[in-house]
Amino acid sequence: MQRYIEELCIAAQLFNMKKSNVSFRNRLLIWQYEYSDAVIGVTFFCALALIKSIAVMELQINPVVATQRVMGVVEYIRVKPISPYAMVGHDLYYTYDVRLNDDNTRIWIDDDVERPHLVGSLIPIERQHHKHGVDTYRLLNR
Length: 142
Description:
Blueprint: H1 2-14, H2 24-61, E1 64-81, E2 92-100, E3 106-111, E4 122-130, E5 135-139
Antiparallel strand pairs: 1-2, 1-4, 2-3, 4-5
């Protein structure tokens, strides 16, 4: 309790316009003690904003330079509802495991389609080749 009273006295002197005997280091420690929660909150907010801007910058730095239509066979389907209150057959988001016909590569595609594709069905896919050598895939609706 005595320490708390001393810190309050020091804090009162810190904001007093008169010259005090509290060193600059001690003033910073008091400031840190008083406002550490606010600083942490602002830091997280800025970090989230920075992460969002990095994602946008990556899209601008690595543009799509070529597209190619390929075919693939659906091997597995996972259904993910967007809303927990979604009606049966509506507002569903599908994740497909697809094996490409041209090079036998297995890929995963997340997409919201008009109707689901069955396991074993042949589906059209757009391969997007980016500037720095990365390929992304997009499911095409027929």
